[in-house]
Design goal:
- With 157 residues, the chain is mainly alpha-helical.
- It is 58% helix and 6% strand.
- It has a single domain, classed as Winged helix-like DNA-binding domain superfamily/Winged helix DNA-binding domain (Arc Repressor Mutant, subunit A).
- The protein has helices spanning 24-43, 50-61, 67-74, 78-90, 112-133, 138-153; strands at 94-98, 106-110.
- β1 and β2 form a beta hairpin.
- α2 crosses α4.
Length: 157
């Protein structure tokens, strides 16, 4: 009879290689997934997903975007954006009007109902962000924001 192999101990998030001694890219991914789960929970009451929230935020910030623009800004695939936009329009949260020059391009804008829902969602997300930065000074928070923005901008940023 064989002796059973020892089962390795898997560290909890924030411990071992899942903590400060871990690979930075892994830590970013782990933090991103944890943040996504918290966003899912915070927005569930409104039946809004984090990708829908991202799309609604960008439509509100930049009215007149096309779906292609929205996909790039919200870091989602064109197919995902097509589904989100269709659902937002069906729910009366966004409108799509033909571009005045390029009739095949549809420009997106939030409706009053969409703006109201987004405001409620933002209150939840802002509360989460305040919790996220609670232990940071304003200077530390700005350093983290600057670093993340540089990472997102790519090597030339």
């Amino acid at each position: 009879m064989r002796k059973p192999l020892p089962t390795p101990t898997v560290p909890a998030p924030g411990q071992g290689k899942r903590g400060e001694s871990g690979h930075l890219a892994y830590l970013l991914r782990q933090a991103s997934l944890a943040w996504r789960a918290r966003m899912d929970e915070a927005l569930a009451e409104f039946a809004v997903t984090p990708p829908q929230f991202a799309a609604m935020t960008m439509i509100d910030a930049y009215p007149g975007l096309s779906s292609a623009d929205l996909a790039r800004l919200s870091l989602l695939t064109p197919a995902t954006i097509a589904a989100i936009v269709a659902n937002l329009k069906r729910a009366g949260l966004a409108t799509a009007r033909p571009h005045p020059v390029h009739g095949r391009i549809l420009q997106l804008a939030p409706t009053a109902k969409g703006k109201a829902l987004l405001t409620r969602c933002k209150l939840r997300v802002y509360a989460l962000e305040a919790e996220l930065t609670r232990e940071l000074s304003k200077d530390e928070e700005q350093t983290v924001r600057r670093w993340l923005a540089r990472l997102a901008g790519g090597p030339e940023a």
